[in-house]
């Protein structure tokens, strides 16, 4: 099989040579011109069928979405918008397709409609670009950490612990649903369960990540995580991918520096390696913006926005400063926030977006949150009120990173777990890191889909993961 990919063919321009291309028909015009796509790029290659050379039976089977193998000669194109085409010598139908029944027509479909046929939406230009960029970002994640000597640690999907202590877990069990074994007091007897205890899907690989960091120094995880939070928003999934670096000998500032460098590296990688897909998405967004009134359109297009983010330092403020900015904002004075603002609140997305989109107009790193609204493992500050937490807020997204310096002092950690009702007996293995050579350490989690959203400009998180899992939806 000496197939050449269309992306390669279009850049390599091997004029007059014989090539084999394979792909799916996007359109077929005048019984003569096939626009063929193989997913390597949004650009189709035009295959030209000489009139009279192929029989009617074959021509009839060249329908939208049929799979073809074409052997032909590369010639300069006379048509507009392409530099070469393939003059077909042999055409083989690899797979027929009933164009009448095929749900994708050669026209623009809404993203909502495409979500209902998520099993076919990769075959559109928008999803082609999004998923090639998603791939590139995943690759760049590994490259970034590998270049820095981090170890990729595979943390478990099935766990017995609740890493965030938020109780948003999906249960994993082999017990019968209708009549599970029960203890004398009537509660379910998990001793009979597959693992001999109650287990769930992981919400985060952090706790295991800390074990790795206190041996290898620097590790990262990159895997699926699960949250049974009933949030039907454009930023939440029940199953999402998270990247969680964890570093020994790092404090909060080192942590913020690494996160900023990491995000900029990922963006730069895509700008350098996926220019054509970014350009396609930039254009797509410009078309979308044209539907909006002039004063609601964004000042920068997608590529200008990304360039701005890689070329400017992120803003850094404390939580206390963030609350002050909100309280002094014209927005607050005109009572435009739906939720109240005061020190101690868990900022709502309207607050976060005001800070990044209206006030600073760039990514913002917010540090030192009230202890009461953050997880048990975060390092307690000397003020007795705040913890060394850090969230990164991005324009158009809101929270994209959550992280902290960790509480490395055993007594303080145990006290806090007790205060928060986190079972320290079950987390004895986690506490061992603090017993045997504890060190200052820190880490963060980047929501991969939110990062893909930021880079592609896609408004809904359901459109940057292949098969989204959201409340009442697990079709594909
Ligand atoms: O802020 P979170 O909950 O932090 C943690 O899980 C820590 N254990 C991370 C760490 O310090 N190692 O989640 C981290 C990030 C969020 O900032 C957000 O980008 C993403 O994960 N995220 C979600 N993305 C999509 N759907 C959801 N339901 C998400 N919940 C969190
Ligand atoms: Mg968070």
UniProtKB/TrEMBL annotation:
Reaction(s) catalysed by this chain's protein: tRNA(Asn) + L-asparagine + ATP = L-asparaginyl-tRNA(Asn) + AMP + diphosphate + H(+)
GO MF annotations in UniProt: asparagine-tRNA ligase activity; ATP binding; nucleic acid binding
Enzyme class at the top of the EC tree: ligase
EC number: 6.1.1.22
Keyword Protein biosynthesis recorded: yes
UniProt keyword Protein biosynthesis, yes or no: yes
Cellular compartment(s): Cytoplasm
Pfam families per the UniProt record, alphabetical: tRNA-synt_2 (PF00152), tRNA_anti-codon (PF01336)
Complex formation: Homodimer.
Family, similarity comment: Belongs to the class-II aminoacyl-tRNA synthetase family.
NCBIfam families (UniProt xref): asnS, PRK03932.1
Protein name: Asparagine--tRNA ligase
Originating organism: Flavisolibacter tropicus
């Amino acid at each position: 099989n000496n197939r050449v990919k269309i992306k390669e063919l279009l850049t390599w321009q091997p004029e007059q040579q014989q090539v084999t291309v394979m792909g799916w028909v996007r359109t077929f015009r005048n019984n003569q011109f096939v626009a063929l796509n193989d997913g390597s790029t949004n650009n189709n290659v035009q295959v030209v069928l000489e009139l009279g050379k192929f029989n009617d039976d074959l021509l009839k089977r060249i329908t939208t979405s049929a799979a073809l193998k074409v052997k032909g000669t590369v010639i300069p194109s006379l048509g507009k918008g392409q530099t070469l085409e393939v003059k077909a010598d042999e055409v083989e139908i690899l797979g027929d397709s009933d164009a009448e029944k095929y749900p994708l027509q050669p026209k623009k479909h809404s993203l909502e409609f495409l979500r209902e046929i998520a099993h076919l939406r990769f075959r559109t230009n928008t999803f082609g670009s999004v998923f090639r960029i998603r791939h590139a970002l995943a690759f760049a994640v590994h490259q970034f950490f590998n270049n820095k000597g981090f170890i990729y640690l595979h943390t478990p999907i099935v766990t017995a612990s609740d890493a965030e202590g938020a109780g948003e877990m999906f249960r994993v069990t082999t017990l019968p649903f209708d009549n599970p074994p029960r203890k004398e007091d009537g509660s379910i007897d998990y001793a009979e369960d597959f693992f001999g205890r109650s287990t769930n899907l992981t919400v985060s690989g952090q706790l295991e990540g800390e074990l790795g960091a206190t041996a290898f120094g620097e590790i990262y995880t990159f895997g699926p995580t699960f949250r049974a939070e009933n949030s039907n928003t454009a930023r939440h999934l029940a199953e999402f991918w998270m990247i969680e670096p964890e570093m020994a000998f790092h404090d909060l500032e080192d942590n913020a520096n690494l996160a900023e460098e990491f995000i900029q590296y990922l963006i730069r990688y895509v700008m350098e390696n996926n220019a054509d897909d970014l350009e396609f998405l930039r254009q797509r967004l410009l078309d979308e913006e044209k539907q909006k009134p002039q004063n609601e359109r964004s000042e920068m297009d997608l590529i200008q926005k990304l360039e701005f983010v890689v070329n400017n330092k992120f803003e850094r403020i404390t939580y206390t400063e963030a609350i002050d900015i909100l309280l002094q904002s014209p927005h607050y004075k005109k009572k435009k926030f739906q939720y109240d603002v005061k020190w101690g609140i868990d900022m709502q997305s309207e607050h976060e977006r005001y800070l990044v989109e209206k006030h600073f107009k760039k990514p913002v790193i917010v540090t030192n949150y009230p202890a009461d609204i953050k997880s048990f493992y975060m390092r307690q500050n000397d003020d007795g009120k705040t913890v060394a937490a850090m969230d990164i807020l991005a324009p158009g997204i809101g929270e994209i990173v959550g992280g902290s310096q960790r509480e490395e002092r055993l007594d303080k950690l145990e006290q806090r777990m007790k205060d928060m009702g986190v079972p320290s007996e079950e987390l004895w293995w986690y506490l061992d890191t603090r017993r045997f050579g504890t060190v200052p350490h820190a880490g963060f989690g980047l929501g991969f889909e939110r990062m893909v959203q930021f880079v592609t400009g896609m408004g809904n998180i359901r459109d940057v993961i292949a098969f989204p899992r959201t409340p009442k939806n697990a079709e594909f």
